[in-house]
Each structure stands twice: as C-alpha cells, then as structure tokens.
Amino acid sequence: MILIDSSVWVDFFSSSPGPAGKELRRMIADSEPFALAGVVVAEVLQGLTRDAVRIERYLEQCDMLEPTGFATYRDASAIYRAARARGISLTTIDTLIAAIALDHSASVFTLDQDFQELRGLPAWRSTVSDIASVLGRATQR
Predict the structure, then answer these.
(1) 4 and 39 Cβ atoms separated by less than 8 Å
(2) For residue 33, what is the DSSP state?
(3) pLDDT of residue 122
(4) pLDDT digit string, tens, across residues 14-25
(5) Which residue pairs from 53-60 have beta carbons closer than 8 angstroms and sit at least 24 positions apart in sequence?
(6) Model pTM score
(7) Selecting from 3.40.190.10, 1.20.1250.20, 3.40.50.300, 3.40.50.1010, what CATH number does the domain 2-65 have?
C-alpha cells in the first residue's frame, strides 16, 4: 500500500502535472493500491481555489489509512524527536503521516523535501523500513 502525500495530490490536480502527478495518474490507471490519510485530505482541500466539489468527490472515493490509536501519536512524536536530533525540521502533520504509514506498513509517496532528508534517499517513495530506521527499531508489524 502506498500513502499519497498532499504534495503529490497538488501536482496531480495541477493544470500541467509534473513527474509526480504523472506517476500518480499511472498508478491509478494500473490500479496500483494507494490510500490517503485524513490529514492529507485536509491539506489538499484547504488549499483549493477551484474545482473544490469535484476534487472532494474524487478524493472521497479513495481508500483511507488512519491512526490506529495512541501508539500512532507516540510514534509521530518519536519520529519528530529523532528527526530533530538529526537536524531535520518536520511538521506535526509530516510526522503523523509517517507514523500512519508505519502503522499500516505503507510507503509514502511525497515530494516533501523533509521526507527526502529524513530517509536520506533521492527517491520519492519512503518505505516503512526507512521510517522505522529513524525510530531505531525493526519493522516487525
């Protein structure tokens, strides 16, 4: 499962999508499994200036990944502290997205530079093992 971050959705809905938007279009066409998180929906919808109803209807058809309980928020705070210790500044929403992905063994597809710094990889997709390595633990979930 791939959790699609708001940065990719913004590119996807752009009048001239870049590589990430085009990749998401391919994923949809190929029926590759992906999902949203509630905080991603909120980020996308709050930034809309046009086609809000159409985009809202489109997004509500997608699968959702949500926090599974207290542990998700604990993991989000641990990701924040671990990133800060490495000199990386993350938002609470970014750490929550990472923790939700970890909960569901999902990859994160994002253009957010903070995620790229977090895992130290140039690729767009952050894997569960990348997120878990920031926490300094195995990915046995």
Answers:
(1) no
(2) -
(3) 35
(4) 889 988 888 899
(5) 55/13, 59/9
(6) 0.82
(7) 3.40.50.1010
